Amino acid sequence: MITSAVRTLATELTGDDLPAYVYDLPALRAHARAVRDALPPGLELYYAAKANPAPPVLRTLAPHVTGYEVASGGEVEHVRAAVPGAPLAFGGPGKTEGELRRALTLGVERFHVESEQELRLLAGAAKDAGLDAVDVLLRVNVPLASDELGGAALAMGGRPSPFGLDPEAVQRCLPLLSGAGSRGPLRLRGIHAHLASGLDAPAQLTVAAAIADWARKLSERHGLDDLTEVNVGGGMGVDYAHPDRRFDWAAYGKGMADLALRHPGRTLRIEPGRALTVYCGWYVTEVLDIKHSGGEAFAVLRGGTHHIRTPATKQHDQPFQVLPMDTTATWTRPWARPAVREEPVTLVGQLCTPKDVLARRVQVPELRAGDRVAFAMAGAYAWNISHHDFLMHPRPGFHYLDT
Ligand SMILES: Cc1ncc(COP(=O)(O)O)c(C=O)c1O
Asked: Is 48 touching ligand 1 by the criterion CB < 6 Å?
């Protein structure tokens, strides 16, 4: 349901001010606080900045998160500048030597190492920088039983994967890490895994338990007393078809508290992105035209998937709300206002591609040229994953409401 602050701005903006992203920061703050409160106190909550790295979003989350997961040299620089002093965990595949060196200079607190070569590059960079205790978590492709990732929207582990290390590769890495034999500058602090996205709370708990058990066995087998951290990743599910059905943070928090009891002396950490910020953002635009083709209704909107790529990448209908605009009095064109009533309509954007679809055949009571449409769940993986420059349409406005 659209918040009143977003609705007010969405209807006050002029057509030329649209499309616009509108972020409800008080709503984000309340959500982040509720998530934090549902989690056990010892559990560390990192925000995966890739979901939405806008500085006002990062700063709003700051009091409620332990730190930020960053996945490129660009994100390291950006998040360091936006929230100075916040702990960073640098993950992601294909880190370059230059990125690793720069991250060390910036004092990045944790490195999630994805391969044996990356570990060697990091060791060399740390040595050159004169550092003797760089904290490393090995990202592991933890083996899971075949049904454990059943409901995942996007599986990144538990099967052949370019992400992280297979267990055999972990064995090869151990001699390069202090606490496991080496005298080098890298200290093995823990295990990291991000195996899937889109899991509900019971599935997340099953995966978290598998990761924590795997970490414990590794530590016991090799006497790794410094291996005290287990990061079980993000991927908490959100439901675009039912925006009101939210991830069950209360059940998840309870389950993680039980898991922590079974793993005394270990710090558990999570790094969700989407489930934290998706609800706070709205992409607001207006209907430019309505037409019929082959018996189907199409509403052509200002903007499109070059601003909000989410429905194209996920192949879903982006949930939306129609904000009727009574322009009857101001409708100056000498023809009837294009409209559809009580029929399914497909919402498309301004791009010359049939893929520019935001929602398909959705039943609406009424939709007219000049009405506004506010797309919900546009706070994560929306603007920042979109191909902005295609067709050179103007960029949207950005509004961060905070009253
Ligand atoms: C390593 C890692 N951690 C965390 C996340 C955040 O996932 P989500 O936004 O689904 O919670 C991702 C997303 O791809 C990821 O790759």
From this structure: yes
- CB-based burial label for 246 (10 Å; 0-12, 13-18, 19+): middle
The per-residue pLDDT for 129 is: 96
Active site residue 173: no
Q: What is the pLDDT of residue 183?
A: 77
Higher confidence at residue 297 or residue 178? 297
Q: List, in order of start, the domains of the chain with CATH numbers.
A: 87-272 (3.20.20.10), 279-401 (2.40.37.10)
Task: Return the exposure string of 23-39: e unless at least 16 CB atoms fall within 10 Å of the residue's CB, then b.
Answer: bbbebbbebbeebbebb
Residue nearest to atom 1 of ligand 1 (CA): 194
Is the CB of 372 inside a 6 Å radius of any atom of ligand 1? no
Q: Give ∠ CA 21-81-136 in degrees, rounded to 5.
A: 110
Instruction: Return d(Cα 278, Cα 54) in angstroms, integer.
Output: 13
Which pLDDT value is given to residue 155? 58
CA end-to-end span of the chain: 19
The residues facing 298 across adjacent strands are 291, 346
- The neighbour count for residue 346, using CB atoms within 10 Å, is 17
